[in-house]
Amino acid sequence: MSAPIHQTPASLAARSDNQPHRGPRLPKSTGHKALPEPRLRWAIVETFDSSGEYRLIFDGPYPRHFTKPNRLTIGCVPNVGRLVPSLIIQVVRSRRSYSEQTPLSDGRPLQIVAHPVFAPSGDVYAVALWAGTADEEVPSCPIVGVVEWTQTGVGYSTPAARELLGNSADSTGLWTIPGLLSKVDRLDDRAGFLSLFDLIAPQDEWIGFATVTRADHTRRHIYIAARAFGRHPYRTVRSIGYDITEILPPPTPSSDAATVRNLPIPEGHAMAVADLRSGIVHQWLTNADDPQAGWSHHRPEIHPADTRTITDTLIDLLARACDPVAPTASTRARIRFDANADWIELHGQWRLIYCGDRPQALIDITTELPVPPVAVSECAECRRTSSSGADAEPSSIAPS
Q1: pTM to 2 decimals?
Q2: Class of 38-141 per CATH?
């Protein structure tokens, strides 16, 4: 069964951007040997794997699905592919920019420029390459951001990644998956992205397109490539976001996402959508003036005595995902966002709203006691959210 069990606004939250497809159609390479304009001659090679198995993810104006770097053309520039592997190795090992020259068929020197793209750890997780004649000025490199995720959905981002979302003021660099998705107004194949964090049969790589509307109302189109390494609970997901707005204008935002984010919520309630196979809450809806609106960018700690309750609920709903009548469950669990804070008791009413490859559950959440006005008292973002209100989304409900 691949359709939502109930076609309600809540089911749209689970279904929105949840169907895998190949993203926007970009023009196919024509094979012409004339050099494209300089800004279209950037290529991105991911260098996630320390063993040296690097992969090409964007080549000039064309997306690539983890292909070998020696097949790189940078918009039909000849002689580039054979020079690229050694140049990439130099950049990764030295963490410095490099350039090389080689003659074109007409005798003109071709220059190849390679810049490192750093992960939050300082390792090189990508190399940006450009090729052109020696007398050409190298154009500015498009923004390439990196986020490294834990199995539980906590991400560590670079300043460039935050700039992609128009969130340069965020000085912590700490993200959650739902916090990220709350800033994205369209994501192709959300289900594929969540499958990287699947606790049962995880996928190891994913490619997708996202669009973002910034605070200044400008819209950006972002190409994302991610690969996973290791096994639970030490599995990590390394991802690159590449701004392709100049190559391909962004499509319109998802109307489903806009509809869900503007649903009326009963006072004192929060509505969450959970991906059952990963335990990730990826949609969180509250009234802007409710304290729960600030639960967007920290992963909650679940009380040790309550983790089994959450695990059993996930397993039970998965086992009954295709029942003729949508299964339900009720839970009581305590969470906190700060090790020095009191526990907050949550009452959750779960209902399966979508089955198929990635079953989803809607959770209606209320609290036993008044909620603290900020999740983490030392967090500037919490204080900003508390004072202004926001559409927020907490992170993972799966015990680590």
Answers
A1: 0.84
A2: alpha beta
